[in-house]
Amino acid sequence: MPTWKEVTAANPAHSHNFARKWKTLRAQGKDIDGEARLIDAMSERHSRVLDAGCGSGRLGGELAKRGHTVLGVDVDPILIEHAVNDYPEARWEVGDLSEEEIPEGNFDIAVAAGNVMTFIAIEGREAALRNVFNALRPGGRFVVGFGEGRGWGFDEFLDLARAVGYRVDFIFASWDMKVFKENSTFMVAVLTRPGADLLG
């Protein structure tokens, strides 16, 4: 599975095309906010949200419109430019999850949708998980969704998340919380940084 940097290096138009795809889907009236609805439902009002690998901002932008304080971080400056232009309610920063500490910290919840984690180089996976972990407040949660066949097996991901220090609380087969089964081809994992929560 190529990293995002490799994909965009091979096709310089990829980022603009990616951003345009989501704008077109929204303009057509398609529902592209399923991930945002789940994160919103899991969060207290006015939560601090980290959109990890935010892309062009569709998820974090929707959460900001719902009243949350959102920081979106992405390695792609072109996508960040789209996010800044389209969703000024949130804050957007260029950054590599696997190479840099996340600014600020003390987030209530973090989210990585759109197969973000599978675009990270293998050698950067643990660092990316740790950087998000460190950016969460104790008891904060990280919700990660990606499909199979993208170079990072579900069990392998969960094992590494546990090794970093996360507690794996729930696993679903979709962003609308369908039951995860042995043959599921998509996983949404709810991870928690143990600490100041009722279970931690």
TrEMBL record:
It holds the Pfam family Methyltransf_25. InterPro entries: Methyltransf_25 (IPR041698), SAM-dependent_MTases_sf (IPR029063). Coiled coil: none annotated. GO terms for molecular function: methyltransferase activity. It is an enzyme of class 2 (transferase). Its EC number is 2.1.-.-. This is Class I SAM-dependent methyltransferase.
